Structures are given as structure tokens and as C-alpha cells.
């Protein structure tokens, strides 16, 4: 029997929808105001911290701040350093994460549970506690100061990526791997030809989750890089701010201009791939 919707029910649903929209609108406003303020501050010829300064007044807009910060720290080289570090970390994370996740979910070996427990334990240990021994090992023992490898090495294995790949591999029917073994495929061949194509959504998810960390990383590159030509943009901006840059007309505007340059790639990447955070699922990968 068909049910009819009464006027009070329709009113209640509309009020709930309006309430949800209002909450989302307030949340979006609070999230976007800092970014908007950063962009406006980067474009201002003279820094204005008043409420009126939040408005993009044509007479106070300029691109000189971007030119000023570029003259002081070489934005192109700093961006290249950030890109190389991030690409190296993401690449190592995907390769090692796939291998470890496959071993922990598909293979059977003694101590498998202990290894998985150690992966979980790493999640609970702050990176700051490991920084001193890592610095001694990477800089003093390996001699990797002022090098891309020295910046990448501590982040080469990401436990979050391992957990993502493990959960995806666990959802694949074991018969798929058994059939490949019967056909004579090695474990490496199974991983590359069978497992990896089935977990492409996980690869994209792990890449997006991993990207933002090394791209914004400051403390570790700050410790291991003293050569300005090797420093990523986050470190260069910090040095630019602390040294009371030579761009004296609007030093804060120049810092905000550099922050905009640092933020744009991450924002663009998120806008392009945001749907994959929610729509990526194993069902679409193994269907058929």
C-alpha cells in the first residue's frame, strides 16, 4: 500500500536539509577563510590586517610579492627539490607498500602476525622520537646530508599504505592467486600481473594519502639540508621568514606568496582526484 507524505513530514525534512546545508556552509567557510586570507595577503602591495583588508581592492593588488620571494629563494629550484623528494617518497611507498601488503595478506610464513603487529606499532610511535637515531644513521653513518636520498629514506616505508594494500589484498578471493600458482607463475609475477591490476583504486588512494606528508614536510629536511640549493620549498620559506628577507616592502606578503606556491599543487591534486577518496572500492576492480 502506497504511503502518503504529510505536510509536517515534508516540512521536517526540509528543515533537516536546511540545517545540514547550514552546517556544511559554516564548515566550508571556516575551512576556506585561512586559504582565502593567504591568497589575498600574497596579492596585497601593502599588508592590511583589518577586516577591510580581506576584500580584494584593485588598488592594493600586485604580483610583486611573488617576484620578491622568487628573487630571494629561487622558487623554481625549491619547488623542484620538493617535487623530487615527494616523488621519491611516493614511489618507495607504493613499491614497498605493495610488496609488504601482499606478503602480509596473501603469503603464509612464520612470524607473519608479529610483523603485522610491528607495522601497527609504528603507527603509535611519533616520528619525533625516531628523529635523533635516524639523523645519526642517515647523516653520520651513511653520509647522506644534503642529498635527495637522505630526505627520502626515513619516509620510504609508510605503514598506512601497507595497511591499505593489505586490506585490499584480503578482499581478493584466494582462488585467484591459487589459479596463477597452478599455471606456474612466481609470487613476483602474481603480484605484478594479477594483484596490482586488481588494487588500482588502492594504489591511487595510497598515492593521494602519501603525497601531502612529504610535500609539506619541514623538520626532517631542515635537519639534513644545509645547502640552500637542496632545500625543499617548506624549508626555504622558513629560512626566508626567519632571516628578515631582503624583500622589505612587504615581507609577510612575500612569505604568503611562497605559501601559495607551496599549497597550489596539493590543492589542485585534491580537486582533481577527490572523488577517488570515496568512490575507490575493490568491487569495481574485480567486477567481471
UniProtKB/TrEMBL annotation:
Family named by the database record: Belongs to the binding-protein-dependent transport system permease family.
Name the residues that span the membrane.
21-43, 83-107, 114-136, 148-169, 190-213, 254-273
The record's Gene Ontology biological-process terms are:
transmembrane transport
Keyword check for Transmembrane helix: yes
| Matches recorded under Pfam families | BPD_transp_1 (PF00528)
Where's it found, cell-wise? Cell membrane
Q: Name one GO cellular component term.
A: plasma membrane
The signal peptide annotation in the UniProt record is none
Q: What InterPro entries does the record tag this protein with?
A: MetI-like, MetI-like_sf
Q: What is this protein called?
A: Multiple sugar transport system permease protein
* Major location category of this protein: membrane
Taxonomic source organism: Cellulomonas hominis
- Give the membrane topology, semicolon-separated if more than one: Multi-pass membrane protein
Q: Where is the ABC transmembrane type-1 domain?
A: 79-273
Keywords of this entry: Cell membrane, Membrane, Sugar transport, Transmembrane, Transmembrane helix, Transport
Amino acid at each position: 500500500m502506497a504511503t502518503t507524505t504529510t505536510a509536517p513530514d515534508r516540512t521536517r525534512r526540509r528543515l533537516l536539509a536546511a540545517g545540514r546545508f547550514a552546517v556544511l556552509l559554516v564548515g566550508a567557510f571556516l575551512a576556506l577563510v585561512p586559504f582565502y586570507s593567504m591568497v589575498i595577503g600574497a596579492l596585497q602591495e601593502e599588508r592590511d590586517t583589518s577586516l577591510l583588508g580581506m576584500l580584494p581592492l584593485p588598488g592594493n593588488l600586485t604580483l610583486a610579492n611573488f617576484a620578491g620571494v622568487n628573487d630571494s629563494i629561487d622558487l623554481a629550484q625549491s619547488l623542484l627539490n620538493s617535487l623530487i623528494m615527494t616523488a621519491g617518497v611516493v614511489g618507495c611507498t607504493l613499491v614497498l607498500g605493495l610488496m609488504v601488503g601482499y606478503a602480509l595478506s596473501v603469503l603464509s610464513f612464520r612470524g607473519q602476525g608479529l610483523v603485522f603487529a610491528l607495522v601497527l606499532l609504528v603507527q603509535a610511535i611519533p616520528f619525533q622520537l625516531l628523529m635523533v637515531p635516524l639523523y645519526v644513521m642517515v647523516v653520520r653513518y651513511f653520509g647522506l646530508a644534503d642529498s635527495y636520498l637522505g630526505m627520502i629514506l626515513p619516509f620510504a616505508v609508510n605503514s598506512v599504505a601497507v595497511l591499505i594494500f593489505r586490506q585490499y589484498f584480503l578482499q581478493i578471493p584466494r582462488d585467484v592467486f591459487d589459479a596463477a600458482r597452478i599455471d606456474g607463475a612466481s609470487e613476483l609475477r602474481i603480484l605484478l600481473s594479477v594483484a596490482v591490476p586488481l588494487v588500482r583504486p588502492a594504489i591511487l588512494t595510497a598515492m593521494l594519502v602519501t603525497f601531502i606528508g612529504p610535500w609539506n614536510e619541514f623538520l626532517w629536511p631542515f635537519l639534513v639540508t644545509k645547502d640552500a640549493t637542496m632545500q625543499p620549498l617548506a624549508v626555504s620559506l622558513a629560512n626566508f621568514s626567519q632571516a628578515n628577507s631582503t624583500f622589505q616592502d612587504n615581507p609577510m606578503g612575500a612569505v604568503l606568496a611562497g605559501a601559495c606556491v607551496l599549497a597550489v599543487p596539493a590543492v589542485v591534486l585534491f580537486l582533481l582526484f577527490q572523488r577517488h577518496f570515496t568512490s575507490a572500492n575493490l568491487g569495481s576492480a574485480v567486477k567481471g
